[in-house]
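pipeline: protein-struct stage 2 | run 1193 | TetR/AcrR family transcriptional regulator
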Amino acid sequence: MSKSENDAFVRQRQQIIISAAKICFSRSGFHGASMADISRESGLGAGQIYRYFESKEFIVSETIKSIATSWRVFLQDNLPKQSSTRDIIDAESPFWQDWPYQDRCLLLEMYSEASRNQSVREVLAQEEQLLIADLEKAFSRQYAQVSPQQRNERIQFLLMLVDGVACRAFGDKNLDHHEQGRINGILTHHLFG
């Protein structure tokens, strides 16, 4: 096997393990899921897993990086397309269709872990910086007439909004759509007025 084939095989195995870990972590949390759970879910023996990851902590770390990157890419792709906050607030709207419930659970677990783990906070901060830079570029093209401060305020507001909605366990089915429209009008006027 050539070096490039071997590298591809290693990456494939690592991805299998991370995918299995995501399932286990979404069910039991980063600290509740065991290596035996990950082994069972991946179909790989514990010895095989340790060939690709030196410890469970390393699997947690790589899983967090994967979740954070996926979250950034999801937001990069979807936030610039939103002209209204209504779809963001409604957890059942088309805005959220490409962000599965399992990933929402993992995101909540990741934010919880960040509250006690400096390295997780650093991963999240790095991904957020990349996201803000990308959103600034997209919004500069989309809202060229708006000041950089107003664009930054919109970005910060949207990030707080999506984080809040993503972290809710259940959506509020009794949302007042008239009130949502009124709030959206105020925000649009304030941020782009």
